[in-house]
Amino acid sequence: MPVTVRPLRESEWLPLVEALSQSFNAPVPGWERFRERLGDEQLRVAYDERERVIGGYAIYPMGQVWHGRSVPLGGIAGVGVLPDARGGGVAKEMMVDALAELHRRRIPIAGLYPATQRVYRSVGFEQAGERVRYEVPLSSLGGLRFEVDVTPVDPVDPQAVAVFRERYRPAHGNLDRSDAIWSRLSQPYVGRRFAWLLGEDGYAILQHAPIEGVPFDLELYDYAAPTAATARTLLALLAGHRSMAKKLRWQGAPSDPLLALVPEPTWSVVDLQRWMLRLVDVPAALRARGWAPGVSGELHLRVTDELLAHNVGDLVLTVADGEALVRPGGRGELRVGPRALGPLYSGYFTASQLSALGHLDGLDAAIATADRLFASPTPWMREMY
User: Fold this and answer.
1) Among 137, 139, 111, which residue's Cα sits nearest to residue 126?
2) What per-residue confidence (pLDDT) applies to 25?
3) Which residues of the chain have pLDDT under 50?
4) Over the Cα atoms of the chain, what is R_g?
5) What are the φ/ψ torsions at residue 24 (nearest 5 degrees)?
6) Which one of 19, 124, 190, 359 counts the least CB within 10 Å of its CB?
7) Which of 257, 274, 291 is the C-terminal boundary of a domain?
8) Do 256 and 185 belong together in one domain?
């Protein structure tokens, strides 16, 4: 099917909403808020040969944190195609367009949450990190008490959001959140959220699910609790809902420290998603990334990329003192394509694992050097986009 992808025009908003609503089962008011958060400049639309809107997607410009350093990220979201236009390569054409658009904007990495992996792998994305959802019965959180001050705030109040942003400390793989992401956390598409400041260093943003009626569960959408006293206070605040609410759910790290404060092992993992990553500009992405303290070495890469010709070639990566230098040339001792570069860059899979999967190959010494240079904590993310 011939497909054209271009920026949204005002007259095409309602047809795009129709395509997105049929793809995501989301109400029209939610898409209006989606548009307001991102702005029309972040919306792209797919057309068929009759100039009919058959799909679209959006880009969240933000950052992603790698060993303490934020790298510009284009988060691809809202990828939807009308049911009668599916199966003809529309989604792939939109992803090819997205990579070209991000390169034009000089954004070196692209990320997304896949509903299906095949189409995204066909353009070079691969699994690169986790989003883990935990659940615990509120009845098991007894015996905890407030140890720091708890102050209710309006989660959409700009002053409150400013405090949230100040207290947010992103770990490896976490987002360097844009205004649009903070808006998603504070104000849902349906219902409302509640928030508190916890002492001098913490906060919590939660929502009831379902949005009306009892009993309900608590969805902790975002929080900061960097000290034991703040974390225990957070759990005590949530436990105080247990006369009406039954369960607490939250997104946390793969080895989430909050679990260490749950009195009994009553928690469970109720969902685990893997997000995907793709390097749009390999040299720029490598230069911008943070590196583990004390790690140093030189790696000779031979990069292949069927879609982005500017990435193809031999590079020498030199890492020292948390910085990377990248220059053209070298011996090409580690041969990598985009599906290997995403998880290698994030540290989700080692070079040895990617070699075993058949995603890269090279000299044993080069694979061992890549294992050492890219070694990282498991990359994870709390929010979706």
Assistant:
1) 111
2) 82
3) none
4) 22
5) -115, -5
6) 190
7) 274
8) yes
